[in-house]
From TrEMBL:
Organism: Hibiscus sabdariffa
Record domain CTLH: where: 181-238
Residue ranges covered by zinc fingers (RING-Gid-type): 348-421
Ion transport as UniProt keyword: no
Domain named RING-Gid-type: residues: 348-421
Domain of life: Eukaryota
Protein localization: Cytoplasm
Pfam families on file: CTLH
Coiled coil location: none
UniProt xrefs under InterPro entries: CRA_dom, CTLH/CRA, CTLH_C, Fyv10_fam, LisH, ZF_RING_GID
Organism lineage string: Eukaryota, Viridiplantae, Streptophyta, Embryophyta, Tracheophyta
Record's protein name: Macrophage erythroblast attacher
């Protein structure tokens, strides 16, 4: 229905309706744009869904193998009892009783496995519901939960397990984080830090097919370390048996490393042989020509730290996680828009995040941001310099905004102090004197009025007679 204008021709009702509709449209467009940005950020939520799904697949495979193994053993036992003609009645009863007990144990395993699968399936469902629940009304709350998830992920990767658990419990986001997965990895990490390769080798055995598919050499590195520890303990016979049983099968693909490690039987880390004598700084000299640096790396206790890092990378890859913490990825996404060549200069402003070494290291592999239009920001006021607040050049070549210099001159009786060099400049009372600023060349000088006629390509000149003010031209 159309609304007729009022008799005076103003049409105020129609105008009011139009304004209201426009305001409502603007209010709606803002959340809509945020939701579209959020939709783009969902591309980073790959790990959020894949980790519980991969964990569920692993549980299903493990339960299937267990059931298949036990059922196969029961069928084999039944066949033996059936085929045995000399079996007495008591022996038959005993065998059947054993089979019943075994089937009852299998039933308990299957029930426990089913409960675990259901819990993991519920976690997958909860995460799908969490992603679908976001809308314009709860966007702020949803982003807050996402930030907490990212922080928990970072804490778990950095081994701050207790802090991560407390944050999860206080925020009640148990179904949205992967504490159980990281606790599984914690057992292997703690064992490696205690110089025990047993749990790590057991983990490799459970995931051998997937590690082989990804061409991982983590198990080979564990076997190398096991061999080195036997040599370190001077248990040479066990070291040789270990090499024959576990290292020899890797000779086809890792012959060079195998040859190097076997030399430790003859040239240990404390050898006096000049060609193989250990040199300080093994980690930095890993690529040295002689075997000595390689041997020292193998005997170096820091090799266990390398194995911990290697395990983390393999574990993240198999679980469908990003190799870098999510916090680093989100920070790099923001830093990529801020990174410019100026950020790595010594006089970079402290307000710039890239003035800090940690952020610089994080942004090192990132390309510089593409800037279509340059912006000048005043070093003093941190405000944008434009036509309303033009840039001014001091005689020492540093640029500041007009507003900053005027405020400084008013507060200090006409004195202007450069915050970078502590140089002090005064305003002058001179007849026919003027200050020339040529920003394009970065040169500023005082000139006499007679020199004015001989200057070429002058951008901006202002002559002041008996005025206590400096005016700086713009290039």
């Amino acid at each position: 229905m159309e609304i007729d204008p009022l008799p005076n021709g103003t049409g105020s009702v129609a105008t009011t309706t139009t304004i209201t509709a426009t305001a409502a449209s603007n209010t709606t467009s803002t959340p809509s744009s945020k939701l579209s940005q959020l939709t783009e950020s969902f591309k980073l939520e790959h790990q959020f869904l894949r980790v519980p799904f991969e964990h569920l697949k692993k549980t299903i495979r493990s339960n299937h193998r267990t059931a298949e193994k036990d059922v196969s053993a029961v069928i084999s036992s039944v066949a033996d009892v059936t085929d045995s003609s000399e079996l007495s009645k008591d022996d038959a009863v005993l065998s059947l009783t054993s089979l019943v007990s075994r089937l009852q144990g299998l039933k308990r395993k299957l029930e426990e496995g089913s409960r675990t699968e259901n819990l993991q399936a519920q976690k997958c469902r909860a995460r799908l519901d969490h992603l679908e629940s976001v809308d314009a009304e709860n966007l702020s709350e949803w982003n807050s939960v996402r930030l907490k998830r990212i922080l928990v992920d970072y804490m778990l990767r950095m081994s701050y397990y207790d802090t991560a658990i407390k944050l999860v419990q206080s925020c009640k986001i148990e179904e949205l984080v992967d504490i159980e997965v990281f606790q599984e990895a914690k057992k292997v990490i703690d064992a490696l830090r205690n110089q025990d390769v047993g749990p790590a080798l057991a983990w490799c055995a459970d995931n051998r097919s997937r590690l082989k598919k990804s061409k991982s050499k983590f198990e080979f590195q564990l076997r190398l370390q096991e061999f080195i520890e036997l040599v370190r303990a001077e248990n040479y016979m066990r070291a040789i048996l270990c090499a024959r049983r576990y290292l020899a099968p890797w000779g086809a693909t890792h012959l060079k490393e195998l040859q190097h490690v076997m030399t430790t039987l003859a040239f240990r880390s404390n050898t006096e042989c000049a060609k193989y004598k250990a040199v300080m700084g093994a980690k930095e000299k890993f690529t040295a020509v002689w075997f000595s640096s390689f041997d020292e790396v193998l005997f170096d206790p820091k090799q266990w730290d390398f194995l911990v890092d290697q395990f983390k990378q393999e574990f993240y890859r198999l679980c469908g996680m990003t190799l870098e913490p999510l916090l680093n990825i989100y920070l790099q996404a923001g830093l990529s828009a801020l990174k410019t060549p100026y950020c790595y200069e010594d006089d970079c402003t402290k307000e710039d995040p890239l003035s800090q070494d940690n952020f610089r290291n994080l942004a090192m592999p990132l390309p510089y941001s593409k800037q279509h239009h340059s912006k000048l920001v005043c070093y003093i006021t941190k405000e944008l310099m434009d036509t309303e607040n033009p840039p001014q050049v001091l005689p020492n070549g540093y640029v500041y905004s007009t507003k900053a210099l005027k405020e400084m001159a008013e507060k200090n009786n006409g004195k202007i102090t450069c915050p970078r060099t502590d140089s002090v400049f005064l305003s002058f009372r001179r007849s026919f004197g003027f200050f020339l600023s040529y920003i394009r060349s970065g040169v500023s000088h005082w000139f006499d009025s007679r020199v004015l006629r001989t200057q070429l390509e002058i951008n901006s000149i202002c002559v002041h007679d008996d005025l206590e003010i400096l005016h700086f031209g713009q290039g």
